[in-house]
Design goal:
Blueprint lengths: L5 E10 L7 E11 L4 E5 L6 H8 L7 E6 L9 H11 E5 L10 H13 L4 H13 L15 H13 L5 E5 L7 H18 L2 E5 L3 H4 L4 E6 L2 E7 L5
Parallel strand pairs: 3-7, 3-8, 5-6, 6-7
Antiparallel strand pairs: 1-2, 1-4, 8-9
Length: about 240
């Protein structure tokens, strides 16, 4: 089997460490994710899904254990290098799109390039326009983010997450605020990017209907993996 894109080894996360209210919320998780994977992370509220995603996305550091990307532990890097590694390696899509209202759809998509390189450049603009075209919004590239519908804003967020072509896309309840038709369209966009670009996709969702359409379902309860099952491709 090829080297895992992402591997968790004995991952633990505690809050309030060293205090009377110290609490461990992730309990020794081992998990592997390979390139091109398409998986859902499910579980009841309070099960640790978002905490786990923050650890996978290098937005937080584990209390113990390791998060390895192709065998490398970025949590051992200096903070600036760790941040750059995260920007190049991981795309994020959240329930709330977090677009910048003062910028256009195109400028929002180009934002990762500005953060990475300190400037907008023609190559980034060309790629951003191609991604907006891919999500069906090229004609709205010049529109302010505030002029877009909720579903359109979420599609802009997906394009933004893919601008630097990260090998891993993490999505935290990305369809939670959308109607069924818009949620289905967002899911299909993830599927298309997964098939066409080989992007590994991990989706945290409460929507069992969408989860069952993934290739793999990882279920968390009380900070532990209680089930890890694979399904026929496409769910």
């Amino acid at each position: 089997m090829s080297e895992a894109l992402l591997r968790l080894e004995g991952l633990r996360k505690s809050y309030g460490v060293g205090t009377a209210v110290e609490a461990e919320v992730i309990h020794g998780i081992d998990l592997e994710v390979h390139r091109g994977a398409f998986a859902a992370i499910i579980g009841p509220s309070g099960s640790g899904k978002s905490t786990l995603l923050n650890l996978l996305g290098l937005l937080d550091r584990p209390s113990a254990g390791r998060v390895l990307f192709e065998g490398r532990d970025p949590n051992g890097l200096p903070e600036r290098e760790r941040t750059r590694f995260r920007g190049r390696t991981i795309g994020f899509v959240f329930q709330f799109h977090h677009l910048l209202p003062a910028f256009t759809a195109l400028e929002n998509v180009m934002m990762p390039a500005w953060i990475e390189r300190g400037r907008f450049d023609p190559a980034s603009e060309e790629r951003a326009l191609a991604l907006l075209d891919r999500v069906g919004l090229r004609e709205k590239a010049g529109k302010p983010a505030t002029d877009l519908s909720g579903g359109e804003q979420q599609r802009v967020a997906i394009a933004r997450a893919l601008l630097l072509n990260p090998p891993l896309l993490l999505a935290d309840e990305p369809t939670g605020n959308l109607d069924t038709a818009s949620a289905d369209r967002i899911f299909e966009l993830f599927r298309e990017m997964n098939r066409e670009r080989g992007t590994a996709v991990l989706v945290v969702t409460h929507d069992v209907r969408l989860a069952t359409r993934c290739d793999r379902i990882v279920e968390l309860v009380d900070g532990r993996v209680v089930d890890d099952r694979r399904q026929p491709a496409g769910g």
